[in-house]
Design goal:
Organism: Pandoraea aquatica
Keywords: Oxidoreductase, Peroxidase
Largest sheet: none
Radius of gyration: 16 Å
Protein name: Alkylhydroperoxidase
Low-confidence stretches: none
GO molecular function, one term: peroxiredoxin activity
Distance between the termini: 27 Å
InterPro entries: AhpD-like (IPR029032), AhpD_core (IPR004675), CMD-like (IPR003779)
């Protein structure tokens, strides 16, 4: 496997603006616990080891239960998620995988039944952001855990 370039070092202004965009999402209408689930699920789907590692650690530091973290991949079968969380996870999967026919009315109505218009909009921007980060980190093979110290993720106490 060859070493890939560091896109963040090559495009520092774009990186800075994307980080700022991500920071704005922290004050969105969607609670941080759901944002964590969204970041984890999109990263699982996209096979982004760096982002999955980061967001699982962030969620644990914020108090998310370890079993729920393990169940994100099987959220449909799990009894550990609320109806609101399930709607957000369904919306995440729909926007992350975008089939040939877009997003079904059934999934749209499901999320609309649980979230306000502002929340749906904010959630969609959050999904867009994590998919962007996933594509950068997968494309340039960012090593999982390589930024733990810088982001304080070494406090997650995973062994």
């Amino acid at each position: 496997m060859s070493q890939r370039l560091n896109a963040f070092a090559q495009s520092p202004e774009l990186f800075k603006k994307f980080v700022e965009f991500g920071m704005l999402l922290k004050s969105s209408a969607i609670e941080s616990s759901i944002l964590s689930l969204v970041e984890i699920r999109a990263s699982q789907i996209n096979g982004c080891g760096f982002c999955l590692d980061m967001h699982v650690k962030e969620a644990k530091i914020r108090g998310e239960g370890e079993l729920r973290l393990h169940h994100v991949a099987i959220w449909r079968e799990s009894t550990l998620f609320s109806t609101r969380e399930r709607a957000c996870l369904a919306w995440t999967e729909a926007l992350t995988t975008l089939g040939a026919h877009g997003v079904s009315d059934e999934i749209y109505e499901r999320v609309r039944g649980e979230l306000s218009e502002k929340e749906i909009s904010d959630l969609s921007f959050a999904i867009m952001a994590i998919n962007g980060w996933n594509r950068l980190n997968v494309g340039f093979r960012t090593v999982p855990g390589s930024a733990d110290k810088a982001y304080g993720l070494d406090k997650a106490n995973f062994s």
